[in-house]
Amino acid sequence: MKRLFLAPAGASGAVLAVLVGLALAHVSVAYAASETDFIPGAVADVIAASAARAATVARVNDARLRAADSEPGQWMTHGRTWAEERYSPLTSINSSTVARLGLAWAYEPGTHRGMEATPLVIDGVMYATGEWSRVYAVDARTGKPLWTYDPYVPGAKGRDACCDVVNRGVAAWEGKLYLGALDGRLICLDAATGKPLWEKQTTDTSRPYTITGAPRIVKGKVIIGNGGAEFGVRGYFSAYNAATGEMLWRFYTVPASTQGPFDTPELAAAAPTWSKDSAWDSGLGGTVWDSMAYDPELDLLYVGVGNASVYNREQRSPGGGDNLYLSSILAVRPDDGHLVWHYQTTPGDQWDYTATQHIILADIPFAKRAPDGKPELRHVLMQAPKNGFFYVLDRATGELLAADPYIDETWATGVDLKTGRPIERPEATWSKTEARVTPGISGGHNWHPMAYSPKSGLVYIPTFESVYSYKPDAEFHWAPGYINTSESWRGVAAELEGFEPFVSQNVSTHLTAWDPVRREQAWRVELGQGIPAGVLATAGDLVFQGTTWGKLRAYDAASGALVWEADTGTGIIAPPISYEVGGEQYIAVVAGLGGSAGGHFIKFPNSNPGRILAFKLDAHEALPPMPDTPIKPGMGDKPVEAPVIDASAEMLTRGRALYAYNCSRCHGLGVQASGLYPDLRHASKDVYASWNAIVLGGAFSSRGMASFADVLSPDDAEAIRAYVADRAHHQPGWIEWFAGLAGGRLRIPARWLAN
Ligand code: CA
Predict the structure, then answer these.
(1) Interval between CA 354 and ligand 1 midpoint (Å)
(2) Residues surrounding ion ligand 1 at CB below 5 Å
(3) Residue 5 in this model has a pLDDT that exceeds 90
(4) Least confident interval from 55-59, 100-104, 262-266
(5) With b meaning 16 or more CB within 10 Å and e meaning fewer, what string describes 418-432?
(6) Ligand 1 centre and the CA of 127: distance in Å?
(7) Judging by beta carbons within 10 Å of its beta carbon (0-12, 13-18, 19+), is residue 237 exposed, middle or buried?
(8) CA neighbor of 536 nearest in space, from 185, 134, 154, 84
(9) Confidence tier at 120 by pLDDT (50, 70, 90)
(10) 98-467+506-617: which CATH number, 3.40.50.1110, 3.30.750.24, 1.50.40.10, 2.140.10.10?
(11) How far away, in angstroms, is 483 Cα from ligand 1 center?
C-alpha cells in the first residue's frame, strides 16, 4: 500500500496525534477497527456459488468502459462513460418520435425520502439505489424486481447527514457492485444476487462522515470519497482494490497541521496556504462527495473538492491563505493517488462554494483568445461549480481556458485568465459584517448533474438563482455534534423560525444551456421555484429533466422548446438515463424529492413515494395510484395532543433557540415540517410523555431520530418540549403567511402569533 495514511499507530503516531481533537488512543482504536475486514459468514461459499452467475451479469471492465460508446444501449458507469457526459447516443426517441413516449413500467421500492440515484443498466438489468443506501436490481425491460439489498445503516446515522439519507448510485465491475453506504462502509455485492461479498469501513466512525456519492472504478480500483464538512471532518478520497477490498492509497485534501510531518508531499505543498492557528479540530472539510471523471489516454482521474468545515475564512484560517485544496479540482494518477495538477476555483472560500459539482470531459473546438481567433480542438474539463462561473480547463495541464458566469453572481468581478484567480469583491466578505451574496449556499448549480451533447455542443445545467445573507458569529467555536459552519446556522434558523416552510423566496431555478465554445448562454428555461433536477442529453436532439412538481419533460436540445411532458406523480431531483433492451430505447428516472432542501423550502404535496419509472415509444402503462392520504404539513388535520405546559417566556425563548439549532434542520423552521419528517406539533401525547427517552435516550434512533444527549441536557430537552408544545397550540395564521411572502426576513416573536 502506497501513501497509506491509515497505517498502524506506530508508523504514523505523530500524524495521528495532531488529528482533529481526538486522543491518540481513541484514534488508534478507531483506525484499528476500520482496518479490520468484516466479511459475512461463509463468504467463500457465496463467492464460489456466484462465480458462474457473476460471469454473466454486470461484466464491466476497463475495455468495456473505454469503448462505452460502442455499446450505446448500456449505462455502465455513473455518467455513462468515464468522461461523464450523461449523453446517450441512442436515437429512436427523437424530436420526431418523442410524442409517442409513454410509461413502460414503474417500480415502487417503498421509500418516502430523497432519491438522487443514477441507475446503472448493464445487459438488461437496472441497478438503482435509494434512501438509507438500499440497492434495487430490476429487469430493465419490465421493471420486475430481481433482488434488493439493505445495508442496515443505523438510523442514528441520519443525524450526520447534512442533506438527507440519500445515495447517488453504485459502481459495477466484473460481476460485482460497489456501494458507498451512508455510514461510511464500502460494500461489495454479488451483482447476480445482491449478496454482500465484503465490506470496508472507509471512515473514522467517531467523526460525522457520511457517504452519499457513487463510487467510480478505474483500472480495477474503486475510488470513493465522503461528505460531512458541514459538521466537521477532514476530507479525503481513497482507492480500494475492487477484487479484495484492500485499500491502496488515500488522498487527504487538507493538511492536519502546518508543521508536519505530512501524510503526502501534496499536503506539504498545501500547508503554507493555511494559518498555523487554523481551526484544526474542525477537520477543515474539503470533502470529496460527488464528482469524478477519468481520462484513460492521459491516465488522469479528476475529482472535485468541497467546502470548508468552517465557512468564515477568518475563523478558519486566521490571517488568510488560499487554504488548499478546498473548492478545487484535482487531477491525480489512479495508480498511486499522486497529484498531477490542481485548480482552485475559490481560493479561501467563505460561501460554501464547493467544486464537487459534476465534471465533464470533452474535446471541443475551443477558440482560445489567439489573434487569429482560429479554433483548435482542445481536450478540456468542464465544471459549473457552486460559485457561478463555468470553467473550461485544459485537462492535461490544468490551464484555465475560460471562466464565465453562467448565472448572476456578486462575489467576484471576474476570473483572471492569466493567473487563474477570481477577482473578489470586498463587499462579499463577511468575516466581520453580514454580506448578502449571490449565489447563496445552494450555489448556482448543486449536485444535480448537468449533461453535455457533443452533437449540439451545449452543456445543460440545472441552475439556481439565489441570494443569501452570510452572517459572522463572533462567539463561534467549533463543537462536535452540530452543523459547524460559523455562518451562524443558529442565527439563520432562529430568524427564519416561525414561518411557513415555503419554497425559498429568493430562489428561482432554470435549465440553462451553456455554449462552452462561444462562452455564453444559448438558452434558458425558467423552472420557477423548486429544485432543478439532474439532466440527460441524447443524440435524438433531446434534453430530459424532471420537475419538483411531478413531471418528466423533454426539451429540444437546440432551442429549449418543451416538446414532451409526462406525469410522474412524485417530484424528481435525480437525473434521467437512457438505455436499450430488446431493441427498444428507454428513458428512465428515479423519482423522490428530498436532499438538502428536503426539510425546508418545499411543502410536500403528497407522501413522496419513491418511484423508478421507465418510458418507451408507444407504451401506455398507467402510473401507480398516489397514496390516498396526502401529508398536510403546517395546518395539518391531525389532532394536537401536545400538553399545555406552563412555561416562562424565558424558557420558551431558550427552547426556541435550542430547537432552531438542533431540531429545525429536519423538523422544520418554526416547528412546521415540510412533510418529509414528522411535524412535532402533531406528535402524539405518547411522544410528549416519552420526550426525554426519545431526545436524550435515543428511543427512536432506529427510525432516524438519534439521541442528542451529547449536546442537550435534560433542562434543554424540557425547554424544547415546552417550546414545541407552545407552537402546537399557536399554529401559524395569516400573519406568518404574509411574513413569508415578505421574504422570510421579518422577525415576529412567536408569542404574538396566537391564533
Ligand atoms: Ca456544503
Answers:
(1) 6
(2) 307, 352
(3) no
(4) 55-59
(5) eebbbeeeeebbbee
(6) 28
(7) buried
(8) 84
(9) very high
(10) 2.140.10.10
(11) 11
DSSP state of 106: E
pLDDT(277) > 80: yes
H or E element at residue 187: strand 185-190
Instruction: Specify whether the CB–CB gap between 177 and 188 falls below 8 A.
Output: yes
45 CA distance to ligand 1 middle (Å):
43
Grid cell listed for 406? 453562467
Distance of CA 256 from the midpoint of ligand 1 (Å): 20
Quickly tell me which residue has 448537468 as its cell: 450
The span from the CA of 626 to the CA of 606, in Å, is 8
Would you list the DSSP string of 259-278?
A: S---SSHHHHHHGGGS-TTS
Candidates 183, 352, 679, 716; catalytic one: 352
The residue ranges of every structural domain in the chain are 13-54, 98-467+506-617, 649-753
Answer whether 98-467+506-617 and 649-753 agree in fold: no
Tell me the pLDDT tens digit for each residue of 214-244: 999 999 999 999 999 999 999 999 999 999 9
Measured in Å, residue 306 CA sits from the centre of ligand 1 at: 7
CATH 3.40.50.1240 fits 649-753, yes or no: no
Phi (first) and psi of residue 492, to 5 degrees = -65, -50
Paired with 285 in beta bridges are: 234, 308
pTM listed for this prediction: 0.88
Indicate the SS3 state at residue 17: helix
Tell me the average pLDDT of the chain: 86
Q: Per-residue b/e over 727-739, b at no fewer than 16 CB within 10 Å?
A: bbebbbeeebeeb
Active site residue 352: yes
CA of 229 to the centre of ligand 1 (A): 7
Q: What is the pLDDT of residue 508?
A: 87
CA of 6 to the centre of ligand 1 (A): 26
What pLDDT was estimated at residue 546? 98
Give the pLDDT band (50/70/90) at residue 496.
low
Q: What is the mean pLDDT of residues 692-717?
A: 95
